[in-house]
Amino acid sequence: MRALTVNRAYAAFRRTAAAQLRHPQSALGTVLVAFFLILALFGRQLAPHPNPNDQSHDARVAPTLDLGALQLGEHPFGTDRLGRDVYSRVILGAGSIFRIAGLGTLISVMLGSALGLFMGYQGGWVDEVIGRVIDALLAIPALLLALVLIGIIRNLDFAAGSWQAALADNVILLVISVLYIPVVARVARSTTLDIKTREFVEAAEIRGESQFYIIFREILPSVIPSLVVEASLRFSYAIFLVASLGFLGFGARPPSPDWGLMVNENRGGFYQLTPWALEFPALAIAVLVIAVNLMSDGIRRAVQKGA
Amino acid sequence: MTASQHNLLDVDKLTISYQVNNRWIAAVRDFRLELQRGQIVGLVGESGSGKSTVALALMRYLSSNGRVERGSKLTFDGEDLLRKSNAEMRRLWAKRIKFVPQNAAAALNPSIKIGRQVTEALQAADGLESHDAYQSMMRIFHDVNLVDPERVAERYPHGLSGGMQQRITIAMALISNPELLIMDEPTTGLDVTTEAVILDLVRGLIAERETSVVYITHNLGVVAQLCQRVVVLYAGEIMEEAKVAELFQQPRHPYTLGLLSSVPKPGQSKGTAQLQSIAGNPPSLSRIPSGCVFAERCPFVVDICREEKPPLETLTDGRSVRCHRWQEITPTLNPSPIKREGLLSNNTPLPSLWGKGPGDGGGATLMRVTDVKKYFPVERNLREVLGRVEPTPIRAVDGVDLQLRAGQTLGLVGESGSGKTTLARVIIGLEERSGGKLELLGMDVRNSVRERSHDVLSKLQMVFQNPQNSLNPYLSVRQALRRPLIKLRGFSPAQADAEALALLERVNLRAEYADRYPDELSGGEKQRVAIARAFASDPDLIICDEPVSALDVSVQSAVLNLLAELQEDHGSAYLFISHNLSVVGYLADAIAVMYLGQLFEVGEAHELFHPPYHPYTEALVSAIPVVDPAHRTERILLSDDLPSAQNLPSGCRFHTRCPHKIGAICADEEPPWRAGEAGHLIRCHIPLEELSTLQRTLVLSDKAD
Description:
heterodimer; A: mainly alpha; MetI-like fold; 12 helices; B: 705 residues; alpha/beta; eight-stranded mixed beta sheet; 25 helices; globular; disordered C terminus
């Protein structure tokens, strides 16, 4: 039986893969996301300078990348004003963005879908109350809410080693969750509202199944396809958010190789001196966000077809 | 020859393909049809037989992934339709060829008033000025018997009932007196009473206008009552073509034979005969067998059937059949001489499963329903909020008393909106009742499933209408069957696995089905699994809410037989809800007739087809399209408007539509229950003796044996 389930999962995966390949854009997106994922996982092995803060004596070296001759050179993306290798910093930056955006997405999808399933199945005043809170949260501009939350939490004084301090250290994760749990919950809720009227759910009610069983065994599997689509979409927004917060100085702190932060550090007067130190991390953000979007388009098509 | 000049429509070697996943699949192969002026030809087939595809191709209106293959011939009034440009086709559609769709609600634009939609069509067809168009719209509305046409014209489609919407689409199709009318299951979504009205209307209109009609349906009864010729389609090929009378008296193709004998005829019941059914499923269109397409399911199959495709042989004028063995197939339908094990089995009478009516105390009372009510609250509008007025709730079920007896089937019939499904959901506990009492074997049954004891839960089960949704697509058949065994009967997982296989066997599915998922099952197989699941807890009462209405005719009878067999083995009682009176009449021991939330007649099933009946029952019975062209009932036609359950008629709720209304008393006083023989109860102001003289026996039961 387990083998069967695995087989079905594999069949679903193959269907998704086939659908991705049928549309070159989404195939390209998937390949690019995979490429960035490799950078994120093996950044230390791939970067010429595993320490992002290695300083060469030659600051402000122009990029040595030669696309015509297919040569990287010593500093493919040049060095910044402090002599750090931009190429290595971009590669190493992939790790942190995938970690924060990925983990944040995972948390929001898990909690958000549990919340949405519960609301949708329960209905009545529970749904009404939680629904209004969600509406209120969604009414506040995302970035504003993020900045306020970060501002408050960072200014609180916590004893080192306490859980509050741990939370404050991961405040970006918290922000992503607060912002995206409501969005995911809405999606899960609306699908649940549709599924719960199906007769198989009523059949489960008739045999006296617990709410927990009905929500997770009977309804959840049918909600998963739309959750997968939503998760991929949330991931692309999370990347954008992490980069934005880095740029605004609310994310990672200097000198960490965060893409958003790198864009921020090298703008203004520095842009005249070392334009490449801004352009390459900015390009990385743009390419990754577009790639994730293309991929999620493909996933959505596959899921809609398979339904 | 001159014959072809006389034919309005001449179709030959018509092959239609659809592109699916980059492959062209021939959905209809070698179709032919000759239609003379003023003729009505029925196109019969099950889902997937290609009948709608033919309809669209005749109109040259296939979707973009469909095409008519080379070599096909399609002429309309001597003109080759396949060579026409789109602009020429549009002119034909506007004036000479019209289409009536199945789903009238979807065919009408929801945001344009009826009057404007119809006048627009008139202006396009006849180039009329808007004033003239309005006048001729009124004439057409009058022709289709629309009450109050001026008001109807001012309304939006959602403000009309399904029957009225279908009249509008028919009215629009009759604009400019088309020569060819293609009707694609125009009455399938409607109640029997409304269906009867629409069929009468169509018959009358066509006789007046000499319009030719291609009438597509899966309902053989409708064909028998309406058409002159029939074409039977199966898996995209013509199986048989004949005049209606010939086809019903002497079908020559095993498939036609199977179809005809799988429909329960009024008066036929589980006690007298098992229904015949066609085993198996239609072939997949992407893997059409090289031999006869019906060979897999045919009871008369021999080797040649699998090897060689039979030709469509012409027997006599207008009669052809595609079968190698048609000469050997010469049955009369009732009783059937075909004695073939397992398939078209003979009519062995089952031992009588009941003997006592609902009123005379025979059989132990299993469930007692006392004065059960279900009101749905209505949102208050602003005036009601300000005036602190409680709005009238929707009284879906309004005081129903019923007794269900152990091991018996109670059929519950009524039009849609009569409250029969709500009553079922109240009994099973999916809806909380607003009042009344439920007792199961003397135990008080609580309001909703969540409050009910384990004992009550395991004794009450349900089979749902739509097999598509009644199984979880992500759970295998084994998982679906295991759960109630573990949950309600306390089996260990190992025991449950063994029992799940036993259950599958009981519903005639092989053990290998245990590992399949619902998307790998056909509709009939899904419903069998759903039935097995309902029987898993060994219940005393199973509520069957239209369990066969979503299934094809050939599959329906097998499921009905299964339900009858299982009842005999388990002694479970059924509350069987259906709008199809023939089906209820076949399976039920007792019948309750429901109208606007109340019961109006309760009695033994075989009484259903004999007077006296309640005037409403009479109308329902007379509306059944009987599968016998020789049989003409005098229809008692009801206006198609069921009053709103929020604003119920005073006195007798049926008085607004009653053909036997006797006067003010009907509108003022609630009618009394009158007792007839053997526990037969009728709620009417007219005494039963008088009713008997007013009414005639509408359908004779089993005249042949």
